[in-house]
Amino acid sequence: MKDSSLFCFLLIFTTLLTTHKEEAGREGLSLYTPPPLVLDYHDGPLMTSSTGIPVYLLWYGVFSKSEKQTVADFVRSISPMNEQQLGLTPSVSMWWKTLTSYKDNRGMQVTSVVSIAGQHTDRSGSLGRNLNLLDVETLVENSVANAYFPADAAAVYVVVTAYNVNVQGFCLSSCGLHSFLQPSAKTKGKQLVYAWVGNPGTQCPGYCAWPFAVDPSIGPQDFKPLIAPNGVGADGMVINLATLLAGTATNPFNTGYYQGVATLPNEAATACLGSFGTGSYPGQPGQLLTNTLTKASFNAYGIHHRQFLLPALWDPTTQTCKTLT
Questions:
Q1: Model pTM?
Q2: Where are the beta strands (DSSP E) in 133-263?
Q3: Helix, strand, or coil (residue 225)
Q4: Do 199 and 166 contact (CB within 8 A), yes or no?
Q5: Per-residue model confidence as pLDDT tens digits over 1-38
Q6: Which residues are within 8 A (CB) of 274 and not within 5 positions of it... i.e. 6 or more apart?
Q7: FRET label pair with 214: which of 94, 170, 204, 281, CA 20 to 30 Å apart?
Q8: Domain-by-domain residue ranges, the chain?
Q9: May I ask which residue range the UniProt record assigns to the signal sequence (predicted)?
């Protein structure tokens, strides 16, 4: 990718299940306690703007009205004032509040305010249905160059690709990514932060929409998929977008909070991979709430009485993975 770094993540359940079996087999045989998970701070900027984080949504391809509303409602649910209007807990803004514990070298914390500043739909798919990662960057650049969105260095530009759009690495090595563009004429001379997430509803729900689907190709699993509150594809996009926004806010330029190598780091949410509720372990999401009517599983309320399932976040104050339920 041109002058940018790739962050990608994949729910690899074969690894998760194998790890759990190995740990179970070693019970009682060793007194070794692994060191705590720590995301080191690398002295770079975080997303700390006092005016908040504007999110620009670029819908690439065809989406249902429900899918768009679900994803947009998740983003709108992050800000605390929407939690006050909602009056239900645990909430999406409570989930994001953990990220405000991340501070930069000036003592500035990740902002608590996130809002949708604009949306644009490229329904016809201007670059075709088979995209590489440079095409994703081009879509972001074009959205600014064509004045769909302004050039905003404090914002996150999110490209969301439809169920029938193939993106390089999707379902094979990643469920999405976040990165940044260096200043150029197309970006109006500004360094822009962006993310991409795909719709996994039909392409790979077992990988990128777990625990609402399982992948039969990895063999028998002692796990029955949970019922998705908003649909497998929509909720898969929410889980992955939540993961990406958490990583973007705390590590926008490869120099924030992460563990491991900068090009493939453990970040705020990926450090807690596969954990959604208390008591989670590899292959099991943990204790969740259940909708009494639909039997759908969730752990956070959003605006319009939406119910979402959001990943656990690494809490820098306790150095543990924090869940809402």
A1: 0.90
A2: 156-161, 166-167, 176-181, 192-198, 257-261
A3: coil
A4: no
A5: 444 444 344 433 333 333 333 332 223 344 545 567 89
A6: 11, 13, 16, 210, 280, 282, 283, 285
A7: 94
A8: 39-270
A9: 1-24
